[in-house]
Amino acid sequence: MNRKAKNMKGDKKQRAVISVRGRVQKGGYRDLVAEIANGLNIGGIAENMPDGTVRIIAEAEKGTLEQFITLIEPSEDPMIKVTGIEVDFEPATNEFEYFDIKYGDFGMEGFERIGVAAVYLKRIDKKQDQMLGKQDQMLGKQDETISIIKSGVDEMREFRTETQQNFGNLDIKYGKIAENMERILEELKEERKEYRESIEKLVNAILKSKEEG
Asked: What pTM value is reported for the model?
């Protein structure tokens, strides 16, 4: 990714005029930029340009602007790909109270918003599938643990039966151990039930938020 920057001496608070090239329109890039800017207390605007770039004006201290420029290059977003950034530093005008998005034609912006919403719904579905996959893995491990404990209980019972006639005292001890293991087994089953219910509630909440959104 190519980046060109022209520094200009001025006040401690400066203005960065940034031109971002790449797949940066119709994918929620301006929303990402605005979220980052507001998190850093940067004032300014972001707008789509006719040539397919996004123009950003940001005002803050030089160090904050440099951090901002680094953060507006997402590396893992499937809908956004920044291929170039050009930056010009100028004296700040202090005209921005906060960072905002400058929208263009209502019809085009509306279609873009619908597209972005669809992408994020797909991401939610993917995360939901990942969560359910992890749930299955954890439940599988719990089943394995319960099976091992149950096997141990069965073996203990068999051993107790074989030695019952000759080792009365040991029989009492093994009986207590078996009872303790059975209690542990029941507790694990209850924990598994509670865990499954909590996961189902979480999934239902996600599905409900998708329907309401």
From this structure: 0.51
